[in-house]
Design brief:
alpha+beta; disordered N terminus; binds cobalt (II) ion
């Protein structure tokens, strides 16, 4: 019995450390938002920024990926409990070109929270008067998961992305 109980405790501790939406549910919270999946920062030059974060912070930085359908080129800066996504505009119609024009040295662009069910999250938020950007439909985001963005004016000037992740499927 001792052994099994020990296992259960370890599993619970691991779940708590992971702090996932699902772990939160098991602990009795009913928050709509789970883990912070990533914090996105727009940079004027991705290669310069990636080298800077790698060399100055000693951070683990991924290979660059170009996402033409999203108009960005990105790297992930990994840390123990989440990731920062550095993004530079790609192509003529990049959705972050205007942001970079207003913030030529770069800046924090959005915070992405994980949710278990994006349609339910949208319905609850819209019922509370929160504006979903674009036509309000759910699209596939940079990681291939369904995402939507909430109006910055509804969240203290901060653009919030919601990303639907399945249990164990984060990152
Ligand atoms: Co994002």
């Amino acid at each position: 019995a001792g052994r099994a109980a020990g296992c259960a405790v370890n599993v619970r501790l691991a779940a708590n450390r992971a702090g996932s939406y699902h772990a939160g549910r098991r602990r009795g919270f009913t928050s709509m938002i789970g883990n912070i999946n990533h914090i996105a920062i727009v940079v004027p030059d991705l290669d310069v920024a990636a080298a800077h974060w790698r060399d100055v912070l000693g951070a683990e930085v991924s290979q660059a990926q170009t996402l033409p359908e999203h108009g960005v080129r990105i790297v992930f800066v990994r840390s123990a409990n989440g990731q920062v996504e550095l993004m530079e505009p790609f192509g003529e119609a990049s959705p972050i070109a205007g942001f970079l024009k207003r913030n030529p040295h770069g800046g924090m662009h959005h915070v992405c929270y994980e949710v278990a069910n994006i349609d339910q999250a949208r319905a609850k938020l819209e019922a509370k008067g929160v504006r979903v950007l674009g036509d309000g439909s759910v699209k596939n985001g940079a990681h291939g998961n369904p995402v939507l963005f909430l109006h910055p004016k509804d969240f203290n000037g901060t653009l919030i992305e919601l990303e639907q992740v399945t249990e164990g499927g984060a990152h």
